[in-house]
Structures are given as structure tokens and as C-alpha cells.
């Protein structure tokens, strides 16, 4: 995958993690929300919705760390490939 895919997946993971994590807790505490498709953990009864929100937030954080490592590796591969092409072009003959 190239850097663009890693960035897109990171945005999607962050958005899902935020809405199912901290945003769901805030909507439940301050808005007495009992669930919508964007905050499905609020369909759970209390205290399980808070536990599920915490787990989802931690899972999203872990996935973001993995995606960031993958993005760094993709950038390093692209940089190494570019350097190898430049090196091969200067020593032909």
C-alpha cells in the first residue's frame, strides 16, 4: 500500500474510534443518548457502554499505531527505491 491508503485508513479508524469512544460517552452523560448508528455502544446498558467505549478507544489507538508504522515503512521503501534508481542511473556503462 502507498501512503495515501494508510492516511485514508487512519482517518477512518480515528473517526470510528472517536464516535464510538469519547463522543459516545459524552453524548450518554450530557445528552442521555441511548444509541444511534454512529454511537452504537450507547445501545448497551450502563456501565457496559462505558466499558465498551473505553475498549474501542484503546483498540482505535492501537490500530492507529500499527497504521503509522506501516506508513513509515511504505515511505522508507519508496525512499530506498528512489535512491536505488538514482544510484543505478549514475553508474551505468
Descriptive notes:
The chain has helices at residues 3-20, 22-31, 48-90. It is mostly helical and 93 residues long. It is rod-shaped. It starts with a helix and ends with a helix. The model has no long low-confidence stretch (mean pLDDT 84).
Brief summary of the model shown:
With 93 residues, the chain is mainly α. It contains 3 helices and no strands.
Fraction in beta strands: under 5%
Q: How large is the radius of gyration?
A: 21 Å
Poorly predicted runs: none
Order of helices and strands: HHH
Chain-averaged pLDDT: 84
Largest sheet: none
Helicity level: over 70%
Head-to-tail CA distance between termini: 34 Å
DSSP, total strands: 0
Query: What structural category arises from helix and sheet content?
Result: mainly alpha
Broad shape: rod-shaped
Instruction: Output the number of helix runs.
Output: 3
Write the layout of secondary structure elements.
Blueprint: H1 3-20, H2 22-31, H3 48-90
Throw out a few tags for this protein.
rod-shaped, 0% strand, mainly alpha, single chain, 76% helix, 93 residues
